[in-house]
């Protein structure tokens, strides 16, 4: 089985939003045309994850245009998008009786891969 051929990709690392929240937004734009995906991201209720994914998607589009200047952006499709968990920041919250509770401020890595599909 051959590996899929991607036109371009973009990665954003160490984003200060949890992977679980970002995956909910990423599932909405997977296998969509780029223009449609950008519209979905603009009007999604989860603002921070959608802004990060939109920025990464725009970077992947710019990478595709840089790689092949004659490319029609309307034919690009979000072929694969996945969110990996990044390192967590450990913080301490004071608790009763001199104890301390740990707070995990989670980060994530966003990967966006684009393919070209002719026709609709």
What does the model show?
The chain is α+β, with helices and mostly antiparallel strands and 120 residues long. The chain has three helices and five strands; from the N terminus they run βαααββββ. It has helices at 19-29, 34-42, 47-67, and strands spanning 8-15, 76-85, 89-94, 100-105, 108-116. Strands 1-5-2 form a three-stranded antiparallel beta sheet. A hairpin with a 5-residue loop joins β3 (89-94) and β4 (100-105). α2 packs antiparallel against α3 (47-67). The longest helix has 21 residues, at 47-67. It is elongated.
Kindly summarize this structure in a few lines:
The protein has three helices and five strands; from the N terminus they run βαααββββ.
Silhouette = elongated
Alpha plus pi helix count: 3
Q: Order of strands across the biggest sheet?
A: 1-5-2
Give the assembly state of these chains. Answer: single chain
From the alpha carbons, calculate the radius of gyration and give it in angstroms. 18 Å
Helix content: 25-40%
Topology:
Elements: E1 8-15, H1 19-29, H2 34-42, H3 47-67, E2 76-85, E3 89-94, E4 100-105, E5 108-116
Antiparallel strand pairs: 1-5, 2-5, 3-4
Helix pairs in contact: 2-3
Defining traits:
single chain, alpha+beta, 3-stranded antiparallel beta sheet, 120 residues, two-stranded antiparallel sheet
